[in-house]
Amino acid sequence: MEGLVAVSSFRAPRESLGVLDAETAAALVEGMADIAVVLDDQGVVSDIAFGSEDLLADFDSDWIGRPWASTVSPDSRPNLEALLSEARQRSMTRWRQVSHPSTRGTDIPIQYRALRLRDDGPVVAIGRNLQGMAALQQQLVDAQQALERDYWRFRQVETRYRLLFRMVSEAILIIDAPTQRVVEANPAAGQLLGESPSRVIGRPFPEGFDTEGMHAINGLLAGVRAAGRADDVRAHQLDSMQEFLVSASLLRQENASFILVRLAPLLSAPSSNTALPETKARYLRVLENAPDCVVVTDTDGRILTANSTFLSLAEVPTEQQARGESLDRWLGRPGVDLNVLMANLRQHTTVRLFATTLRGEYGSTTDVEISAASVRNGDRPYFGFFIRDVGRRLSAEQPTTPEQTRWLDQLTERVGRVPLKELVRESTDTIERLCIEAALKLTGDNRASAAELLGLSRQSLYVKIDRYGIVADQSSEPSGPDKKDRS
């Protein structure tokens, strides 16, 4: 067949396919093509066949009698005209893509190849539905755009990391975990180690520390590799004898492991003229080993330091894990006890025998009494809390007072003589009065703290105090707003 565009042709088509009649050829074309269109020499559709019901539902099938060019989108008409022109010159054309508007409002891409049956005969256009390929192409484009966005987002994050890494004042090293060689170092690390960051990279770590410090750092790195974290250690630099606090944490990237090492210089040992007096040093040793809990917090109630007794009651393994946490995390009434204590410390600078409970990390509870003091260090105060376990003492004490016992006896004696509703009302008033008196006693007659402890507004508490005629403890000397309220 002259002009046939094909990679390979049948050697003897008349002998191989000569038995094909029109019905068989039509069935063959319908089975091979997603859509087949028969055109006359003017390009008008004379017949059409669809290979699937889905494609038939997407198209307006009333193409017969219409010019084929009217069934495609405007931007596809040049391709369609080129296809028809090529069909007039050759028996078989190349594949060309056009788009047909669908009933859903979207264009459906179809790839056509036209075959002229004889010199003056009709043209058969066989089409392949490219919707699946178009969807894959769109997914590929979306994936490429997502990768591009992720790439630029990664670049921005990396830029911020680099800037922060260079500007941070702390000395930071990134160590390759298996070889313990420096992979990255910020300028602060180079300055502390007496080298430029570029000269530090590639060198083994630790290096330049005394023997004891080297052993401590190697133990730290081994613990981080094994467990992911380890307690901070101290090490002295060999030349200047500068002491560093060395901390480390494990980083994982794909199949590689790195260790982030932070070097914090510590103040040099004080001279003999400014050495801590022996008596003060004894105080510190006594507080550290005291049988009562000793906790120092900042003005927000976050722990700065705590002794071993507190760590034992709170069931915390190391002081490092408690440091920076709010003391409220372990007190019995979260959001109440610490607020009451802090309010009294700001007003009176001391608190004595505040009763509450201490909760351990693993669910244990201990009855405690808390005394506290506010100490000013420059412009910023800090608070010291002394927490005593009173569980055994409370179990031996009688919970009721003679006044409470007398009230209970009077109440039971009136049963049968006074209606139950009136007894309940009087009992409620008495219980409410006792609770208010207990809260005032617990907070040192601080009405604002007592209202918070009872879950009442200040105004409601003042009304109830006036109603029951509760008199403030004259032994305490209030100050600030409460003094005006009690006068």
Reconstruct the topology from this structure.
Layout: H1 13-17, H2 22-32, E1 35-39, E2 45-50, H3 53-58, H4 77-89, E3 96-101, E4 107-116, E5 123-129, H5 131-167, E6 171-176, E7 182-185, H6 187-193, H7 197-200, H8 211-227, E8 233-236, E9 243-253, E10 256-265, H9 278-288, E11 293-297, E12 303-306, H10 308-314, H11 319-322, H12 337-348, E13 350-359, E14 365-377, E15 380-389, H13 391-396, H14 402-413, H15 420-442, H16 447-454, H17 458-468, H18 481-486
Antiparallel strand pairs: 1-2, 1-5, 3-4, 4-5, 6-7, 6-10, 8-9, 9-10, 11-12, 11-15, 13-14, 14-15
Give structural notes.
With 487 residues, the protein is of the alpha+beta class. The chain is 41% helix and 23% strand. The protein has helices spanning 13-17, 22-32, 53-58, 77-89, 131-167, 187-193, 197-200, 211-227, 278-288, 308-314, 319-322, 337-348, 391-396, 402-413, 420-442, 447-454, 458-468, 481-486; strands at residues 35-39, 45-50, 96-101, 107-116, 123-129, 171-176, 182-185, 233-236, 243-253, 256-265, 293-297, 303-306, 350-359, 365-377, 380-389. The strands form three sheets. Strands 2-1-5-4-3 form a five-stranded antiparallel sheet. The radius of gyration is 44 Å and the shape is elongated. Residues 1-6, 268-275 and 474-487 have low confidence and may be disordered.
Question: Major β-sheet, in short?
Answer: 5 strands, antiparallel
**Share in β-strands:** 15-25%
Spatial shape: elongated
The CATH superfamily label of the largest domain reads: PAS domain
Radius of gyration: 44 Å
Alpha plus pi helix count: 18
pLDDT averaged residue by residue: 77
Percent helix: 40-55%
Strand order of the largest sheet: 2-1-5-4-3
Query: Can you count the beta strands?
Result: 15
Number of domains as seen in the coordinates: 4
CATH topology of the largest domain: Beta-Lactamase
Could you list the spans in which at least 5 consecutive residues all have pLDDT below 50? 1-6, 268-275, 474-487
Distance between the termini: 119 Å
User: What would CATH call the class of the largest domain?
Assistant: Alpha Beta
Tell me what the CATH architecture of the largest domain is: 2-Layer Sandwich
Structural class: alpha+beta
